[in-house]
Amino acid sequence: MNAINFTMSGQQLSALDCVGSWLKNDAKTNKIFRLFGYAGTGKTTIARHLASGLNGRVVYAAFTGKAAMMMQRNGCEGASTIHSLIYKFVQGPDGKFSFHLDPDSAAADADLIVLDECSMVDVNLASDLMSFGTPILALGDPAQLPPVAGEGYFFTNAKPDAILTEIHRQAKDSPVLQLATDIREGKPLKYGAYGNSRVVPDGSLEIDEILNADQLLAGRNVTRSHYNEEIRRALGRTSDLPEIGDRLVCQHNDHGLGIVNGGMFTVVSEPKKSRFSGTLSLELKSCDFPDHENYRVRVHPEFFTDDEERLADKERKNSQQFKYGYALTVHKAQGSQWDHVIIEDESHIFDKYARNWLYTAVTRASECVTLVTRL
User: Fold this and answer.
1) Which residues face 250 on adjacent strands?
2) Measured between alpha carbons, how far is 242 from 322 in angstroms, rounded to an integer?
3) What are the tens digits of pLDDT across the range 119-160?
4) What confidence tens digit (pLDDT) does each residue in 232-247 have?
5) Any bridge partners for residue 286, and if so which?
6) Which residues are within 8 A (CB) of 335 and not within 5 positions of it... i.e. 6 or more apart?
């Protein structure tokens, strides 16, 4: 990897020195270094710079495909999901495939693993990643929503070893980061433009504006469901059940198939309903990894009508779980980014985490954001 040409701030240089000292002196016994920082403070820049000067192999990983792709765009060569890094498919005697730790994984030979969005990683996945014994530089953002139960524990259960708070000068021109910083600092928002981003009154958007966005985010599941219905109607969908071209989001890991919670997919075949199980057979293409071969899944129709609570545990276990993905909750969107995001501001329902929720929502946008709110 070529050296990276940029000017670091004093705070960034200090953090780089801390990480370098850990790698040289402590990484053999203390396998995790927690480098936390707000959006735009240069966490990935430091990781890249460290890798360029390291006499050894560095691998980059993130929980979601979207986060891995963002790492690649930011110069982290070969960044992948944790799952694709450390697991391999194994076919059993029954012909079914399952995930198994890959002893030949690049994680085993690497001198350092750079892990982005570390709060998304649950205990089991973290344990498997750490089982290779490779030092991990864990990157996280303390202003984001705290992890839900079981997620992020290995990486968020201790104070950061270094924290970045100064927005890098190259990031200050980003309207998205300007808005996110104002939210994090508790500054009052005003209706109007933030560069190519906007803060607009509730109810002021037309459906065409919603359809032109890459992703819509909300706080409550009932709001998410409402927008998914509205968007599907506007797209001409006539059935409650999926049609070719519908966007779906995975609701539950299925290691056997290699699909993870939060993954985004497009329906590419007409659904077929089983007379015996009542499930829908669907062929899906991954939005996160479009070059991957299509997936074949079986989903109970109740997931598409928000009636999945009626299903018995056995029914859930013998199928996959998907919902429409035109609108997502912010919790489901953590770890992902899209160019243009619309946010239905429901931060008030998160009480003391209201600011964290809104900050997390805004930073899901990489180019521009439209925040729909009541001021």
Assistant:
1) 322
2) 10
3) 888 888 899 999 999 999 999 999 998 766 666 667 888 899
4) 999 999 999 999 999 9
5) 265
6) 62, 63, 64, 66, 67, 117, 120, 262
